[in-house]
From TrEMBL:
Full protein name: Regulatory protein GemA
Pfam families referenced in this protein's UniProt entry, alphabetically: GemA
Amino acid sequence: MIARTVLAKIHVAKKQLALDDDTYRAMLRSVAGVESARDLAPEGAAKLLKHMERCGFLPTKIQQSRPRVAASRAAQLGKIEALLADAGRPWEYVSGMVKRICKVDAIEFCDGEMLGKLIAALQVDAKRREKR
């Protein structure tokens, strides 16, 4: 039995090579000697992927799921300031947003996630103004 990530990579290769089901199953039989990718052993999966790469499959790096690192507080505050300046709005405008969106009394109490929400709201506002 092979890992789900390897199985997924095989199916991505199948899609990238635009293989129909009959051609794909013929490839499985000829290269690895199995009827289904689920039946592949790790060695057979490696052999199949090598064959698919020779046929034109271009593998991409698998992204590891990890939490996104928030930008530094200073950078986030700079972005908020730039969005306010672009809109011609004072810092008091953000004070109201902080109370409404983040449910805290002042921007000083906002963490990185809250500042991200403020930036997103200001960007939505900027796009709305562009449409006018």
